[in-house]
Design goal:
Layout (H helix, E strand, L loop, with lengths): L2 E7 L3 H15 L4 E4 L4 H7 L5 H10 L1 E6 L13 H8 L4 E7 L11 E7 L9 E3 L4 E3 L5 H17 L4 E6 L7 H18 L5 E6 H10 L6 E4 L1 H11 L12 E3 L4 E3 L18 H14 L3 H16 L14 H11 L3
Parallel strand pairs: 1-2, 1-3, 3-12, 5-10, 8-9, 8-10
Antiparallel strand pairs: 4-5, 4-11, 6-7, 11-12
Protein backbone atom coordinates (compact mmCIF):
# COMPACT_ATOMS: atom_id res chain seq x y z
CA UNK A 1 0.00 0.00 0.00
CA UNK A 2 1.59 3.33 -1.03
CA UNK A 3 1.96 6.10 1.54
CA UNK A 4 1.92 9.77 0.65
CA UNK A 5 2.98 12.73 2.77
CA UNK A 6 0.73 15.63 1.77
CA UNK A 7 2.14 19.13 2.34
CA UNK A 8 -0.18 21.85 0.96
CA UNK A 9 2.24 24.69 1.79
CA UNK A 10 1.18 28.27 1.10
CA UNK A 11 -1.39 30.06 -1.04
CA UNK A 12 -3.05 28.01 -3.77
CA UNK A 13 -1.10 24.97 -2.63
CA UNK A 14 -4.01 24.42 -0.25
CA UNK A 15 -6.36 24.29 -3.24
CA UNK A 16 -4.43 22.34 -5.89
CA UNK A 17 -2.90 19.67 -3.65
CA UNK A 18 -6.30 18.36 -2.43
CA UNK A 19 -7.37 18.11 -6.07
CA UNK A 20 -4.27 16.05 -6.91
CA UNK A 21 -4.87 13.84 -3.87
CA UNK A 22 -8.42 13.15 -5.11
CA UNK A 23 -7.02 11.91 -8.41
CA UNK A 24 -4.38 9.76 -6.70
CA UNK A 25 -7.01 8.24 -4.41
CA UNK A 26 -9.19 7.50 -7.43
CA UNK A 27 -6.48 5.36 -9.03
CA UNK A 28 -5.23 3.92 -5.71
CA UNK A 29 -8.09 3.43 -3.24
CA UNK A 30 -5.77 2.04 -0.55
CA UNK A 31 -3.50 5.10 -0.60
CA UNK A 32 -2.50 6.08 2.94
CA UNK A 33 -2.33 9.84 3.51
CA UNK A 34 -0.12 11.53 6.10
CA UNK A 35 -0.43 15.34 6.35
CA UNK A 36 2.46 17.63 7.26
CA UNK A 37 3.35 21.32 7.36
CA UNK A 38 5.96 23.42 5.55
CA UNK A 39 6.33 26.84 3.96
CA UNK A 40 6.43 30.53 4.79
CA UNK A 41 3.23 30.42 6.85
CA UNK A 42 4.65 27.46 8.75
CA UNK A 43 7.79 29.50 9.47
CA UNK A 44 5.70 32.40 10.76
CA UNK A 45 3.85 30.06 13.12
CA UNK A 46 6.67 27.80 14.25
CA UNK A 47 9.99 29.48 13.41
CA UNK A 48 10.86 26.72 10.90
CA UNK A 49 9.92 26.48 7.23
CA UNK A 50 10.25 22.70 7.39
CA UNK A 51 9.86 21.24 10.91
CA UNK A 52 11.78 18.07 11.76
CA UNK A 53 8.52 16.14 12.05
CA UNK A 54 7.77 17.01 8.41
CA UNK A 55 11.14 15.72 7.23
CA UNK A 56 10.57 12.58 9.29
CA UNK A 57 7.12 12.07 7.74
CA UNK A 58 8.53 12.39 4.21
CA UNK A 59 11.24 9.84 4.98
CA UNK A 60 8.72 7.43 6.50
CA UNK A 61 6.32 7.68 3.57
CA UNK A 62 9.03 7.73 0.92
CA UNK A 63 6.97 10.09 -1.22
CA UNK A 64 5.42 13.51 -0.75
CA UNK A 65 3.33 16.02 -2.66
CA UNK A 66 4.17 19.67 -1.90
CA UNK A 67 1.96 22.52 -3.07
CA UNK A 68 3.63 25.93 -3.13
CA UNK A 69 5.67 28.30 -1.02
CA UNK A 70 5.53 32.08 -0.53
CA UNK A 71 9.17 32.98 0.06
CA UNK A 72 9.97 36.60 0.94
CA UNK A 73 12.20 38.47 -1.52
CA UNK A 74 14.27 39.90 1.33
CA UNK A 75 16.52 38.26 3.88
CA UNK A 76 14.53 37.15 6.94
CA UNK A 77 16.60 36.00 9.89
CA UNK A 78 16.27 32.27 10.42
CA UNK A 79 14.24 31.62 7.27
CA UNK A 80 15.30 29.35 4.41
CA UNK A 81 13.18 28.28 1.47
CA UNK A 82 11.10 25.25 2.34
CA UNK A 83 11.71 23.42 -0.92
CA UNK A 84 15.47 24.04 -0.85
CA UNK A 85 15.52 22.81 2.74
CA UNK A 86 13.73 19.61 1.71
CA UNK A 87 16.01 19.10 -1.28
CA UNK A 88 19.18 19.40 0.75
CA UNK A 89 18.03 17.76 4.01
CA UNK A 90 16.66 14.71 2.17
CA UNK A 91 19.36 14.73 -0.55
CA UNK A 92 16.77 15.03 -3.31
CA UNK A 93 19.62 15.39 -5.75
CA UNK A 94 17.65 15.17 -8.99
CA UNK A 95 14.95 17.52 -10.21
CA UNK A 96 12.97 15.95 -13.04
CA UNK A 97 11.08 18.34 -15.29
CA UNK A 98 9.25 16.69 -18.20
CA UNK A 99 8.02 19.08 -20.88
CA UNK A 100 5.51 17.63 -23.31
CA UNK A 101 3.09 19.29 -25.70
CA UNK A 102 -0.47 19.50 -24.35
CA UNK A 103 -3.60 19.53 -26.55
CA UNK A 104 -5.15 22.91 -27.43
CA UNK A 105 -2.50 24.56 -25.30
CA UNK A 106 1.01 24.12 -26.68
CA UNK A 107 2.30 26.20 -29.62
CA UNK A 108 3.40 22.96 -31.31
CA UNK A 109 2.44 19.32 -30.81
CA UNK A 110 5.80 17.53 -31.07
CA UNK A 111 7.78 18.68 -28.02
CA UNK A 112 8.76 15.89 -25.62
CA UNK A 113 11.84 16.51 -23.47
CA UNK A 114 12.97 15.77 -19.92
CA UNK A 115 15.27 18.17 -18.09
CA UNK A 116 17.29 16.49 -15.34
CA UNK A 117 18.70 19.16 -13.05
CA UNK A 118 21.22 18.72 -10.24
CA UNK A 119 19.22 19.81 -7.22
CA UNK A 120 21.46 20.28 -4.18
CA UNK A 121 24.52 22.39 -4.97
CA UNK A 122 25.80 24.84 -7.58
CA UNK A 123 24.88 28.48 -6.90
CA UNK A 124 22.04 27.25 -4.69
CA UNK A 125 24.50 25.79 -2.18
CA UNK A 126 23.51 28.60 0.19
CA UNK A 127 27.08 29.78 0.79
CA UNK A 128 26.98 33.57 0.65
CA UNK A 129 28.76 36.39 2.41
CA UNK A 130 28.67 40.16 2.28
CA UNK A 131 30.43 43.10 3.93
CA UNK A 132 27.80 45.55 2.70
CA UNK A 133 29.89 46.63 -0.26
CA UNK A 134 30.60 43.29 -1.89
CA UNK A 135 28.43 40.16 -1.81
CA UNK A 136 29.80 36.77 -2.85
CA UNK A 137 27.94 33.54 -3.55
CA UNK A 138 29.98 30.35 -3.90
CA UNK A 139 29.17 27.93 -6.69
CA UNK A 140 29.85 24.39 -5.52
CA UNK A 141 30.24 21.55 -8.03
CA UNK A 142 31.36 18.16 -6.73
CA UNK A 143 32.31 15.03 -8.62
CA UNK A 144 29.99 12.96 -6.40
CA UNK A 145 26.90 15.07 -7.12
CA UNK A 146 27.76 15.23 -10.83
CA UNK A 147 28.10 11.44 -11.00
CA UNK A 148 24.79 11.05 -9.13
CA UNK A 149 22.82 13.31 -11.46
CA UNK A 150 24.39 11.78 -14.57
CA UNK A 151 23.44 8.30 -13.33
CA UNK A 152 19.87 9.40 -12.69
CA UNK A 153 19.65 10.92 -16.17
CA UNK A 154 20.96 7.73 -17.76
CA UNK A 155 18.68 5.52 -15.66
CA UNK A 156 15.72 7.62 -16.71
CA UNK A 157 16.75 7.58 -20.35
CA UNK A 158 17.15 3.81 -20.29
CA UNK A 159 13.83 3.11 -18.55
CA UNK A 160 11.94 5.41 -20.93
CA UNK A 161 13.86 4.24 -24.02
CA UNK A 162 15.13 7.71 -24.86
CA UNK A 163 17.68 8.19 -27.61
CA UNK A 164 19.77 11.27 -26.84
CA UNK A 165 21.42 12.83 -23.81
CA UNK A 166 22.46 16.49 -24.00
CA UNK A 167 24.92 17.75 -21.38
CA UNK A 168 24.43 21.48 -20.80
CA UNK A 169 27.27 23.49 -19.25
CA UNK A 170 29.46 26.60 -19.56
CA UNK A 171 32.88 24.95 -19.40
CA UNK A 172 34.40 27.47 -21.79
CA UNK A 173 34.04 30.17 -19.09
CA UNK A 174 33.95 27.96 -15.97
CA UNK A 175 36.46 25.23 -16.89
CA UNK A 176 37.04 23.93 -13.35
CA UNK A 177 33.44 23.68 -12.12
CA UNK A 178 31.54 23.04 -15.35
CA UNK A 179 34.47 21.10 -16.74
CA UNK A 180 34.20 18.74 -13.78
CA UNK A 181 30.45 18.41 -14.31
CA UNK A 182 30.76 17.75 -18.05
CA UNK A 183 33.53 15.20 -17.68
CA UNK A 184 31.64 13.31 -14.94
CA UNK A 185 28.54 13.12 -17.13
CA UNK A 186 30.51 11.84 -20.11
CA UNK A 187 32.23 9.26 -17.88
CA UNK A 188 28.88 7.91 -16.71
CA UNK A 189 27.50 7.80 -20.26
CA UNK A 190 30.56 5.84 -21.36
CA UNK A 191 30.09 3.35 -18.51
CA UNK A 192 26.50 2.76 -19.65
CA UNK A 193 27.67 2.29 -23.22
CA UNK A 194 30.21 -0.31 -22.09
CA UNK A 195 27.39 -2.01 -20.15
CA UNK A 196 25.28 -2.36 -23.28
CA UNK A 197 23.11 0.77 -23.21
CA UNK A 198 24.36 3.24 -25.76
CA UNK A 199 22.64 6.46 -26.72
CA UNK A 200 23.67 9.56 -28.60
CA UNK A 201 25.47 11.96 -26.25
CA UNK A 202 26.12 15.57 -27.17
CA UNK A 203 26.76 18.79 -25.27
CA UNK A 204 25.76 22.42 -25.56
CA UNK A 205 26.86 25.62 -23.90
CA UNK A 206 23.98 26.89 -21.80
CA UNK A 207 23.45 30.05 -23.85
CA UNK A 208 23.21 28.00 -27.05
CA UNK A 209 20.88 25.56 -25.29
CA UNK A 210 18.63 28.47 -24.31
CA UNK A 211 18.44 29.56 -27.95
CA UNK A 212 17.71 26.01 -29.15
CA UNK A 213 15.07 25.62 -26.43
CA UNK A 214 13.08 28.30 -28.22
CA UNK A 215 14.10 27.86 -31.87
CA UNK A 216 14.40 24.06 -32.12
CA UNK A 217 12.85 22.32 -29.08
CA UNK A 218 12.43 18.95 -30.77
CA UNK A 219 16.21 18.52 -30.94
CA UNK A 220 16.09 17.80 -27.19
CA UNK A 221 15.29 14.45 -25.60
CA UNK A 222 16.94 14.19 -22.16
CA UNK A 223 19.02 17.10 -20.87
CA UNK A 224 21.27 16.99 -17.81
CA UNK A 225 22.67 20.15 -16.27
CA UNK A 226 23.63 22.01 -13.12
CA UNK A 227 21.29 23.60 -10.60
CA UNK A 228 20.93 27.22 -11.75
CA UNK A 229 21.13 26.41 -15.46
CA UNK A 230 18.49 23.71 -15.00
CA UNK A 231 16.24 26.07 -13.09
CA UNK A 232 16.31 28.66 -15.85
CA UNK A 233 16.14 26.27 -18.82
CA UNK A 234 13.27 24.23 -17.38
CA UNK A 235 11.22 27.37 -16.77
CA UNK A 236 11.90 28.51 -20.35
CA UNK A 237 10.99 25.07 -21.69
CA UNK A 238 7.64 25.23 -19.84
CA UNK A 239 6.52 27.60 -22.60
CA UNK A 240 6.00 24.52 -24.76
CA UNK A 241 3.56 22.91 -22.28
CA UNK A 242 1.55 26.04 -21.53
CA UNK A 243 3.73 27.86 -19.01
CA UNK A 244 4.65 27.41 -15.37
CA UNK A 245 0.99 27.06 -14.42
CA UNK A 246 0.96 23.68 -16.19
CA UNK A 247 4.45 22.40 -15.36
CA UNK A 248 5.03 19.40 -13.06
CA UNK A 249 8.27 18.37 -11.35
CA UNK A 250 9.76 15.66 -9.17
CA UNK A 251 12.52 16.15 -6.59
CA UNK A 252 14.02 12.65 -6.47
CA UNK A 253 16.67 11.17 -4.22
CA UNK A 254 17.36 7.62 -3.07
CA UNK A 255 14.19 5.97 -1.69
CA UNK A 256 12.48 9.33 -1.24
CA UNK A 257 10.87 11.89 -3.54
CA UNK A 258 8.85 15.10 -3.32
CA UNK A 259 6.56 15.96 -6.23
CA UNK A 260 5.90 19.66 -6.70
CA UNK A 261 4.01 21.79 -9.23
CA UNK A 262 6.37 24.45 -10.51
CA UNK A 263 3.99 27.38 -10.12
CA UNK A 264 4.10 29.68 -7.09
CA UNK A 265 1.61 30.34 -4.33
CA UNK A 266 -0.33 32.93 -6.42
CA UNK A 267 -1.62 35.06 -3.52
CA UNK A 268 -3.72 37.17 -5.91
CA UNK A 269 -6.13 34.29 -6.63
CA UNK A 270 -6.13 32.48 -3.28
CA UNK A 271 -9.65 31.53 -2.19
CA UNK A 272 -11.28 32.32 -5.53
CA UNK A 273 -11.58 28.69 -6.59
CA UNK A 274 -9.84 29.30 -9.91
CA UNK A 275 -6.39 27.80 -9.24
CA UNK A 276 -5.54 25.31 -11.98
CA UNK A 277 -4.71 21.91 -10.42
CA UNK A 278 -3.26 20.31 -13.56
CA UNK A 279 0.42 20.86 -12.66
CA UNK A 280 -0.16 19.34 -9.21
CA UNK A 281 -2.05 16.41 -10.74
CA UNK A 282 0.70 15.77 -13.29
CA UNK A 283 3.29 16.01 -10.47
CA UNK A 284 1.36 13.30 -8.67
CA UNK A 285 1.54 11.21 -11.85
CA UNK A 286 5.34 11.47 -11.70
CA UNK A 287 5.23 9.88 -8.23
CA UNK A 288 2.97 7.14 -9.53
CA UNK A 289 5.29 6.39 -12.44
CA UNK A 290 8.76 6.69 -10.97
CA UNK A 291 8.33 6.10 -7.23
CA UNK A 292 5.35 3.77 -6.93
CA UNK A 293 6.36 1.90 -10.09
CA UNK A 294 2.94 2.07 -11.78
CA UNK A 295 3.57 3.52 -15.26
CA UNK A 296 0.19 2.41 -16.61
CA UNK A 297 -1.68 4.25 -13.87
CA UNK A 298 0.49 7.32 -14.46
CA UNK A 299 -0.34 7.10 -18.17
CA UNK A 300 -4.03 6.95 -17.25
CA UNK A 301 -3.76 10.21 -15.29
CA UNK A 302 -1.90 11.94 -18.11
CA UNK A 303 -4.46 10.76 -20.68
CA UNK A 304 -7.29 12.08 -18.48
CA UNK A 305 -5.55 15.47 -18.33
CA UNK A 306 -5.11 15.48 -22.11
CA UNK A 307 -8.77 14.57 -22.64
CA UNK A 308 -9.86 17.35 -20.28
CA UNK A 309 -7.78 19.91 -22.17
CA UNK A 310 -9.10 18.56 -25.48
CA UNK A 311 -12.59 19.34 -24.16
CA UNK A 312 -11.48 22.95 -23.64
CA UNK A 313 -11.55 22.60 -19.86
CA UNK A 314 -8.62 23.97 -17.87
CA UNK A 315 -6.94 25.86 -20.70
CA UNK A 316 -5.55 29.03 -19.05
CA UNK A 317 -5.39 30.87 -22.39
CA UNK A 318 -9.11 30.56 -23.15
CA UNK A 319 -11.13 32.84 -20.89
CA UNK A 320 -14.49 31.54 -22.15
CA UNK A 321 -13.85 27.96 -20.99
CA UNK A 322 -14.33 26.38 -17.53
CA UNK A 323 -11.38 27.36 -15.41
CA UNK A 324 -12.43 26.57 -11.86
CA UNK A 325 -10.49 24.17 -9.67
CA UNK A 326 -13.55 22.03 -8.99
CA UNK A 327 -14.62 21.82 -12.65
CA UNK A 328 -11.14 20.88 -13.85
CA UNK A 329 -10.73 18.25 -11.14
CA UNK A 330 -14.15 16.72 -11.79
CA UNK A 331 -13.46 16.55 -15.51
CA UNK A 332 -10.13 14.76 -14.97
CA UNK A 333 -11.77 12.33 -12.54
CA UNK A 334 -14.54 11.57 -15.03
CA UNK A 335 -11.98 11.02 -17.80
CA UNK A 336 -9.99 8.46 -15.84
CA UNK A 337 -10.36 5.10 -17.53
CA UNK A 338 -11.05 3.13 -14.34
Amino acid sequence: MPKLCVIPGDGIGKEVVPAAVEVLQAISSDLEIVTADAGWECFQRTGSSVPEETLSAIKTCGSALFGAVSSPSRKVEGYRSAIITMRQSLNLFANIRPVKSLPRLSPRDDVDMIIVRENTEGLYSGIERSNGEKAIAERVITREASINIANRAMQLAKSLERKRLTIVHKANILPMTDGLFRDACREVAEEYAQGGFSMEVDELLVDVAALKMISDPIRFDVLVTTNLFGDILSDAAAYWCGGLEMAPSLNWGNNVAVAEPVHGSAPDIVGKGIANPIAAILSGALLVQHIWGQPELAKMIKQAVHQTLSQNIGNPFMTNTPHHTRQITDSILSNLNL
